[in-house]
Design a protein that fits this description.
By secondary structure, the protein is α+β, with helices and mostly antiparallel strands. The protein is built from five helices and twelve strands.
Length: about 220
């Protein structure tokens, strides 16, 4: 059964990889239940959707459309085999480490019912940044991560509440085929896919505008 293996939060620590001063990418599993709520706008909001979780670069991260970041334990294990190093839960900066859940295949607008109260909605894939590359200290990491196209998913908070490790995840899928993997590929190395993204109403406005104008992200 799909479930949350761990809930991970990060405290502020120095960030030598960007000029924002601090980062919360070093996320660690917590044993207790964590409150989840919509953080508000990216600029001027609360940052993370998890109470107690720090977001340093408020220009590019956090806010309602990036409230919670999820990555599959199975994908972390695959990276561990490829890179020859272990990755603990939270190692990619994810708030939720999942099991038996196809995060790359999750559809934009797909809803995850977690535990008793929480409902999250899949919004957009994670685009790798300098902090992520510096944190993992793998040469050419942004290009390696981009080619693999297993980015993990950001989610927005539809219904707040408490989540904890072991909570079951029940998935409700919309009627289209625009997945996290497809959006990531379109926004990075395969811009010819961008028009297909407009079928997903729940895609954030910034991504929709890029799709309309056929503008991929610059990863250099």
């Amino acid at each position: 059964m799909a479930h949350i293996q761990s809930v991970n939060v990060g405290k502020a620590r120095p960030n030598p990889h960007k000029n924002v001063g601090q980062t919360g990418i070093d996320k660690r599993p917590v044993a207790e239940a964590v409150e989840v709520r919509a953080p508000g706008p990216k600029h001027g909001g609360l940052g993370s959707g998890l109470v107690g979780d720090f977001v340093g670069d408020r220009r590019n991260h956090g806010g309602d459309d990036q409230a919670v970041y999820a990555y599959a334990r199975e994908d972390l294990d695959a990276w561990s085999l490829d890179l020859g190093r272990p990755f603990s839960d939270g190692a990619f900066g994810e708030n939720l480490t999942t099991v038996d859940l196809d995060v790359t295949g999750a559809l934009i607008g797909e809803r995850w019912r977690i535990g008793i109260d929480v409902v999250l909605e899949v919004s957009v894939p994670r685009i790798p940044c300098a902090t992520f590359a510096g944190w993992l200290a793998e040469r050419g990491w942004i290009k390696t991560f981009t080619r693999r196209a297993v980015p993990g998913a950001y989610l927005r908070v539809i219904s707040p509440g408490l989540i904890r490790s072991g909570d079951a995840v029940v998935v409700e899928r919309p009627d289209h085929d625009v997945s996290i993997g497809l959006v990531f590929r379109a926004l990075t190395l395969e811009p010819e896919l961008l028009p297909r993204l407009l079928a997903a109403d729940a895609l954030p406005d910034e991504a929709k505008e890029r799709a309309r104008r056929r503008l991929p992200f610059d990863l250099d």
